[in-house]
Write a structure and sequence with these properties.
This protein is of the alpha/beta class. It is 42% helix and 20% strand.
């Protein structure tokens, strides 16, 4: 069963997810790689809004080749559907920025790349709203969904972030790493 977690755009949330680039993000990436190696698990990433930033942060860490299988940058809905096997009807109805889309991206990349764990990111970085689906309106900038898949569970986190495009993307990378780290330590 998939769990869903929602976070408001409160500044306390930003501190909790250790937003921004630098030592904080690198430190979390080191902890994720270490946790994956200790568990004997591999990881894959499916990234839309972060454009490969999560996989880049993980592969920056020495030794990551023993646990990082790779990543798929699925910026278009066509790639989400054809490569990650995200349901086309879901994409049409809900649009790409959706909790269930994030979940299917994570599950899909785990299968495609043969990984034990996966992390997926989808969202709107702005500056303009992202298009929605036939059942939804446009999606405001800062709306983010992060899905984490492990052998034990799959869950989705919803964030509402603030800032310009670069800030929203870097904060999403940091939040995704934090989410995976929490899953490895639970």
């Amino acid at each position: 069963m998939t769990q869903h977690h929602d976070h408001s755009p409160d500044p306390v949330i930003a501190a909790m997810i250790d937003v921004g680039e630098g030592a904080g993000t690198r430190g979390v990436a080191e902890q994720v790689v270490s946790g994956l190696i200790e568990s004997g698990w591999s990881v894959a990433t499916a990234e839309s809004v972060t454009g490969g930033g999560v996989c880049a942060a993980l592969t920056d860490i020495p030794g990551s080749s023993s646990c990082v299988r790779g990543g798929v940058v699925s910026y278009s809905t066509q790639i989400k559907r054809s490569v990650l096997n995200v349901d086309g009807d879901l994409l049409r109805r809900r649009g790409a920025v959706d909790a269930e889309v994030a979940e299917q991206m994570a599950r899909g990349v785990a299968v495609v790349l043969g990984a034990d764990c996966a992390i997926a990111t989808t969202g709107s970085a702005g500056p303009d709203p992202a298009p929605g689906g036939t059942e939804t309106g446009s999606v405001p900038p800062g709306t983010i969904f992060i899905a984490v898949h492990t052998p034990a569970t799959t869950w989705v986190e919803h964030l509402s972030l603030r800032g310009d495009r670069a800030r929203i993307r870097s904060d999403t990378v940091a939040a995704a790493l934090q989410a995976l780290r929490r899953s490895l330590h639970s």
